UniProtKB/TrEMBL annotation:
It is a multi-pass membrane protein. This is LMBR1 domain containing 2. GO terms for cellular component: membrane. GO terms for biological process: adrenergic receptor signaling pathway.
Length: 676
């Protein structure tokens, strides 16, 4: 049983990461290396979060064994008994043998650091490159990352020179390794506190607002107005890019050296644009280098990059618009069904996706009405209260975890109480809930933030390769300081607790932060207190108000711009609803017509076909073979006449030759045919 828990969590976390990546990425269209690198980054980060509670319980058991071995036996007359603590020291069900966890953490940590600092930035530039060959993409990626890598090498080289020149420093390799880890964790902790301060407030508030039907519907209208603007902008941008592609396609002919590059660009265009450009293409014309100025390969690379970006953005806005329409229609149905006396949920439109029959059997219209109209609002309110309580505990512990006498961090109090009774199940559950809540607050913010159109995690397989790789970079940089912050909150880190006890295996690979005392005793302790200011700023929506002042429309109830966008979105939803209703009414009429007159039309059609077959058989037996040959040749002659008319040169227009008599014009037309 010792390795079963570790093995089960490794398998479970893999499928969890695969499920989330399938929701946001597109396995069919995106490059396999992008999918594998992102999956590996997400998997390693989620694995650290799930395995760390097992490391804590194993460390507490090892401390118990050390205390038992160091405590002397008690003598009572002629009997010798062991210390009372030995009776409570039993092996947990999830115990991991010594030597496994240090190797496991070392492999996971350094792999994630290699991904976030070296491989993923290079793959980002490779994915956004518009090159037509692997060599060209690699060259572009190296050039773009030269400044990125050169900055770090310059800082690290300057530090090594300073250490080598200064005689007061006698650093060894382990200390240099610890300094590098401390620098990476410092950068991650700086970003971690910013994201954590937003998530601690926004997650409970979003669930509380989820119980407000009117609030969700108004916000959906607001999103519809913004998304329609973005959708129109994406369509206009795609049209402009396709116009440039059309000009390049017409200028570069089939035997031009750059024609392969143009064909590669055409393959990335939507199907309707490919067909349109194919019809207007005259491949029989040769190119003349002296006649026209042709685009260079560098300009084609830039155009290729723009095509990939514009097509991805256009496809994403189209899918998001359809999803938003379904959400708006459903919320409007909920608002209508709240006053229903029959207590059965009635949908305006049937779901376009096929639902599971087992789900339909249990989730009946009556059950759906009770859940959506009665139970769900109260459930969301209760969940919001629980999450808000957790947020308050986290904020309090972040401000007081440095205090060891007395212990003020509530998470440390819970773990120490469980450690006295060696209740490993409670220890693991408390550790898991704590780090899971911290991870949800941080990771959900990563999924929510949007940096213009460069970084945006869109569900339903609409996230581009650049955003997937960037999210993997963020996860790998945020997870190690998140785990160290968790160990500090629970006083499992010896740097915080100031106890000479056995550290966790995760802390042991990080090394002693005493090498940099100003970071261990200063930044790591006092910087997390900033989360209080960030939570207050998030509660009063200061960031939203600043973005609104800068011209980025945000959902604010007391803003006139928000009211205008809500009205605009409501009109857009109403228009789309009428359009879909007309489509369904037309389909219903066609279905009713087919059910009512379909059999009669089929019988009439069969009767007519049978009569035609009889007439054709009678004519074949009553005529001779030369006549049939003449008939076929007559049809062939008619086709030849049509082809000759199509190939005939047009006559010059002359007003005197116009004749109002249709008979004379008809005779003239026959004369032309005979001459041909």
């Amino acid at each position: 049983m010792s390795g079963a828990a570790l093995g089960l969590e490794i398998v479970f976390v893999f499928f969890l990461a695969l499920f989330l990546l399938h929701r946001y990425g597109d396995f069919k269209k995106q490059h396999r290396l992008v999918i594998i690198a992102t999956l590996l980054a997400w998997y390693l980060c989620f694995l650290i979060v799930f395995i760390l509670p097992l490391d804590v319980s194993t460390t507490i058991y090892n401390r118990c064994k050390l205390n038992v071995n160091s405590s002397p036996p008690e003598s009572n007359g002629s009997y010798v008994t062991l210390a009372p603590s030995k009776q409570k020291c039993f092996k947990p069900w999830s115990y991991i043998p010594n030597g496994i966890m240090p190797i496991f953490w070392r492999v996971v940590y350094w792999t994630s650091q290699f991904l976030t600092w070296i491989l993923l930035p290079f793959m980002q530039s490779y994915a956004r490159s518009g090159g037509f060959s692997i060599t060209g993409k690699i060259k572009t990626a190296l050039i773009e990352n030269a400044i990125y890598y050169g900055t770090y090498l310059l800082i690290f080289g300057a530090f090594l020179i300073y250490v080598a020149v200064n005689p007061n420093f006698n650093l060894q390799w382990n200390q240099l390794q610890t300094i590098g880890i401390a620098a990476a964790n410092t950068w991650g902790l700086f970003l971690l506190v910013l994201l954590l301060g937003y998530g601690l407030v926004e997650i409970p508030r979003s669930h509380w607002n989820g119980a407000k039907r009117g609030y969700l519907l108004m916000k959906t209208y607001f999103k519809a107005a913004k998304l329609m603007t973005e959708k129109a902008d994406a369509e206009e941008n795609l049209e402009d890019i396709m116009e440039e592609v059309r000009k390049v396609n017409e200028s570069i002919k089939y035997n031009h050296p750059l024609r392969k590059c143009v064909d590669t660009i055409l393959k990335k265009c939507p199907t309707e644009y490919q067909e349109r450009m194919g019809r207007n293409m005259d491949d029989y014309e040769d190119f003349d280098e002296r006649q026209n100025s042709y685009p260079s390969e560098k300009s084609l690379v830039k155009l290729h990059k723009q095509v990939i970006y514009s097509v991805q953005r256009h496809r994403r806005t189209q899918v998001q618009w359809q999803i938003l329409l379904e959400q708006a229609f459903y919320l409007e149905d909920v608002a209508k069904n709240e006053t229903s006396a029959s207590r059965q949920f009635v949908h305006t439109f049937q779901s376009q996706e096929s639902e599971n029959k087992i789900f339909q059997y249990f989730y009946t219209p009556t059950v759906e009405w009770y859940w959506e109209c009665l139970l769900r609002p109260w459930f969301y309110r209760a969940l919001a209260i629980v999450l808000a309580t957790f947020s308050v505990i986290v904020v309090w512990s972040e401000c007081t975890f440095f205090s060891t006498k007395p212990v003020l961090s509530l998470f440390a109090v819970f773990i120490q109480l469980a450690e006295k009774t060696y209740n490993y199940i409670y220890i693991e559950m408390a550790c898991f809930l704590t780090i899971f809540f911290l991870s949800i607050c941080v990771y959900s913010t990563v999924f929510r933030i949007r940096v213009f159109n460069y970084y945006y995690l869109a569900s339903h397989h609409q996230t581009d390769a650049y955003s997937l790789l960037f999210s993997g970079m963020l996860f790998c940089r945020l997870t190690p300081p998140l785990c160290l912050n968790f160990l500090g909150l629970t006083h499992m880190d010896a740097t915080i607790s100031h106890k000479n006890t056995q550290p966790t295996a995760y802390t042991s690979i990080m090394g002693s932060m005493r090498v940099l005392s100003f970071i261990a005793d200063g930044f790591y302790i006092y910087y997390p207190m900033l989360v209080v200011i960030l939570c207050i700023a998030t509660y009063f929506s200061l960031g939203t108000r600043c973005l609104n002042l800068l011209g980025f429309q945000q959902f604010m109830g007391d803003s006139e711009m928000t009211s205008d966008l809500i009205d605009e979105g409501k009109e857009l939803i109403r228009r789309e609803k009428r359009k879909r209703q007309r489509q369904e009414e037309g389909e219903n009429r066609r279905r009713e017509w087919k059910e009512r007159y379909g059999n009669r039309e089929d019988s009439t059609r069969n009767r007519a076909v049978h009569t035609d077959q009889k007439e054709s058989s009678f004519s074949e037996t009553s005529t001779n073979r030369p006549l049939s040959k003449y008939t076929r040749s007559n049809g062939r002659t008619e086709r030849d006449r049509i082809e000759l008319l199509q190939d005939a040169e047009p006559l010059d227009f002359n007003a005197d030759s116009i004749n109002d008599d249709p008979l004379e014009s008809e005779s003239g037309r026959k004369t032309i045919i005979k001459d041909c």
